[in-house]
Design goal:
Radius of gyration: 17 Å
Structural class: mainly alpha
Protein name: Transporter
Shape: flat
InterPro entries: EmrE-like (IPR037185)
Distance between the termini: 15 Å
Keywords: Membrane, Transmembrane, Transmembrane helix
Oligomer: single chain
Order of helices and strands: HHHHH
Largest sheet: none
Length: 124
């Protein structure tokens, strides 16, 4: 059984997921340059570095969290991707985008809340 999960742990998990989504930002930036150009390789290289860092951090996260909880929280990558799209690429956020992300966040909260209730029941 994994030890008790704190808000700090959830925030660290979200930071790891945000790092993961930055790899897609690098891929999109690379796609804006001619294939085989220096900038193309630099952005794809940055993507690989980010994915390597993420892989190491993710291994630490699945030591801390139940696997079902960790993977459920990965769905929050949608939120981070939406944030990066708006902030970095100035994409327009639609009502459908917001509703979709809100549903994902709600589902993640329900699953995380269910895990905490299970832990309370196990302790009793």
């Amino acid at each position: 059984m994994k030890k008790k999960i704190t808000l700090k742990d959830i925030l660290i998990l979200q930071a790891v997921i945000a790092i993961y989504t930055l790899s897609t930002v690098m891929a999109k930036l690379a796609s804006g340059h001619p294939t085989l150009s220096l900038n193309f390789f630099l952005f794809y290289g940055a993507e690989l570095v980010i994915l390597a860092i993420y892989a190491l951090l993710w291994q630490q996260m699945i030591k801390k969290f139940e696997l079902s909880i960790a993977y459920t929280n990965r769905a929050m990558a949608l939120l981070w991707s939406l944030i990066w799209a708006a902030v970095i690429f100035h994409d327009k956020i639609t009502l459908k985008n917001i509703i979709g992300v809100a549903l994902v966040i709600t589902g993640t909260i329900i699953v995380n809340g269910g895990q905490q209730k299970e832990e309370l029941c196990d302790e009793a």
